[in-house]
Write a structure and sequence with these properties.
The chain is 0% helix and 42% strand. By secondary structure, it is an all-beta fold. The strands form 7 sheets. Strands 4, 5, 6, 7 and 8 form a 5-stranded antiparallel beta sheet that branches. Strands 3-2-1-29 form a 4-stranded antiparallel beta sheet, with no helix packed on it. Strands 9-10-11-12 form a 4-stranded antiparallel beta sheet, with no helix packed on it. A hairpin with a 4-residue loop joins strand 14 and strand 15.
């Protein structure tokens, strides 16, 4: 997270019964990229799971499983530059910037909509969401929305959830007009990222300023609990088996392991200083954790809760991003270095450093496989 660029300390598996029936009135979008990776192993302090499962949270986001809505849309990487107040559009086949456009003050993330037909640039200080038409890659008129630091969508697509960090709440809004339905106060301070339980009924939200995570009943739109995990919790991801949440904790230099049923901390996995973003690979056998202060990426085997590889970005600050459609590349913003990194997930090699605007943050690789997007830079199911 980080409301300020220089701040260094700054889920879900859909059940197979969820029906996808929502549509958007905005534009369309898509993109693809590649990724990288390989390195040294490290052990985890978290106990290994005692049971195995064939359930896969990310089963619909494997290679080739594109939704009809993204067919024929050109692959693009959208990079919001929080200090420059611009979005750079990269062609992932040539690794070149093909367009740059201005957006309202301090864009934080580029978020694919639930129905995959629009992307939204979140400008928190500019109090606006800027829609992007993915067919053209061009922005539309900004939509006035209060402090949209981040943006998510309920698993059934009936509501957007704007994260107004300064108000320590979640704003449930109409996913098409963004009219406010209900503001839900949270029992913690500065929320930023979240994910949903496998049944789609509960969200777990990280609150970096109070060292806590909150639990929210999505159906009744009410906070139901809070848990102190320490440090500064950031990105939240449901594990492939749907039983635990991984919470990147940048001040604790690792990942908190949270039981999805009991809402208790059951382990911790050390990764590196500034642990921030979490991304599953295409077959969900690995999860990539970006450590933006250490300048590394930790590769976790979720079945054993072990760090099995560590990839290094020399003099880098890997932050937020996503995996290419074919799974061979991991794209990450270099938050403090005005660049984007492309890592080969097969070797761990740094393939490209692409110069972009100042303060690149929530980069979005679009499209990716998946039936729907739950928000953030692309949490696909």
């Amino acid at each position: 997270m980080s409301r300020t660029y220089n701040t260094i300390a700054s889920v879900i598996v859909l059940s197979c019964t969820i029906v996808a029936s929502c549509s958007s009135t905005s534009g369309h979008a898509k993109a693809s990229s590649r990724a990288a990776g390989v390195s040294t192993g490290a052990s985890s302090t978290a106990p290994a799971p005692t049971t195995s499962t064939t359930f896969n949270t990310y089963a619909n986001a494997t290679v080739g499983k594109f939704a009809p809505a993204v067919q024929g849309i050109a692959s693009r990487v959208y990079v919001p530059n929080s200090v420059s107040n611009t979005v750079d559009v990269i062609d992932p086949t040539t690794f070149t910037i093909i367009n740059t456009f201005h957006v309202p003050d301090r864009p934080q993330h580029v978020v694919p909509a639930w129905d995959l037909r629009t992307l939204y640039v979140n400008s928190d200080r500019g109090n606006a969401l800027t829609p992007i038409d993915a067919h053209t890659g061009l922005p539309g008129p900004p939509i006035p929305v209060t402090d949209p630091y981040n943006l998510y969508f309920t698993p059934d697509g009936t509501k957007a959830i704007v994260v107004p960090e300064l108000f320590s709440s979640l704003d449930f809004r109409d996913p098409h007009t963004f009219k406010l339905i209900k503001r839900v106060p949270l029992p913690c301070v500065y929320p930023n990222h979240m994910d949903f339980t496998a049944d789609g009924r509960t969200a777990v939200v990280s609150c970096e300023a109070s060292k806590q995570i909150a639990r929210v009943d999505i159906i009744n739109m009410v906070a139901t609990g809070v848990l102190t995990v320490g440090g500064s919790p950031q990105d939240v991801r449901l594990t492939p088996d749907g039983k635990t949440f991984y919470v990147a904790d940048q001040d604790l230099s690792g990942v908190d392991v949270i039981d999805a049923h009991t809402f208790t901390k059951v382990g911790f996995i050390h990764t590196g200083a500034g642990a921030h973003g979490i991304y599953p690979n295409r077959d969900a056998t690995r999860m990539y954790v970006s450590n933006r202060i250490a300048g590394t990426i930790s590769v976790i085997n979720p079945a054993t809760r072990q760090v099995v590889q560590t990839w290094t970005i020399p003099h880098g600050s890997p932050d937020m991003g996503g995996v290419s459609a074919d799974g061979t590349q991991l794209w990450l913003s270099g938050r403090y270095n005005s660049e984007v990194y492309v890592i080969d997930t097969r070797t761990g090699a740094l393939m490209r450093r692409i110069a972009v605007g100042l303060g690149p943050h929530g980069l979005s690789v679009f499209p990716q496989p998946g039936r729907i997007s739950l928000g953030h830079t692309g949490n696909y199911r």
